[in-house]
Every structure is written in C-alpha cells, then in structure tokens.
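RECORD TYPE: inverse folding
INPUT: structure tokens
STRUCTURE:
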C-alpha cells in the first residue's frame, strides 16, 4: 500500500455518468480543419460527387466515386427493435375484411 494509506485507483477510472466528451461534439482542431478544407474550395467529397456526375469520365471511375462517396451522403440504417408496453412483446390485432364495413361474407 502506498504511503499515507491511500489505495491506488480508488474511485477513479471506469465508466461514470457524465464523464468524457459529449456525444456528437467535435474537437476544436477537427472543426478548424473542416473550415479550412471547405474554404479552400473543393472538398474530397465534392471531388468524388463531381466525378460521379461527369458523363465524360470512365464508367469505372464514376462507379468508384459513387461507392466512395456513399457513406458520407447516405448513412447506414441501424437495426431497430420494436417492443410493446413495458418492454414486453409487441401485441397486435389483425382484422381481415374488405375495409367496407362488411365482415367479408
């Protein structure tokens, strides 16, 4: 045990509520870099989109540009879990009929 009776690591480290960088925040250096790149004119994403839309470019190059730009333009869909009240199973009722008020006979 270290001098003074203190334990190493007591109360420090690990996951704590409110600790760390807030979700979605951008560090100042990254934000400044993004501003400089945008101010310089053409960003890499702009270049890829322009190439993708250029009818005179080779089809292979246009495909590459579309594939490379896609994650920045169309984010991946996330799986979603749907649950019922209180987190239990989802309950539903299926009514078969013509939708005209008749019982289907």
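DESIGNED SEQUENCE:
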């Amino acid at each position: 045990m270290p001098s003074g009776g203190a334990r190493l690591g007591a109360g420090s480290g690990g996951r704590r509520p409110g600790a760390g960088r807030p979700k979605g925040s951008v560090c100042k250096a990254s934000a400044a870099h993004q501003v400089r790149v945008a101010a310089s004119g053409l960003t890499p994403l702009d270049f890829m989109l322009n190439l993708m839309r250029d009818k005179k470019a080779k089809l292979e190059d246009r495909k590459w540009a579309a594939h490379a730009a896609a994650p920045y333009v169309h984010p991946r869909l996330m799986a979603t879990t749907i649950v019922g009240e209180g987190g239990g199973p989802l309950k539903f009722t299926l009514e078969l009929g013509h939708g005209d008020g008749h019982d289907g006979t």
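NOTES: The mean pLDDT is 80.
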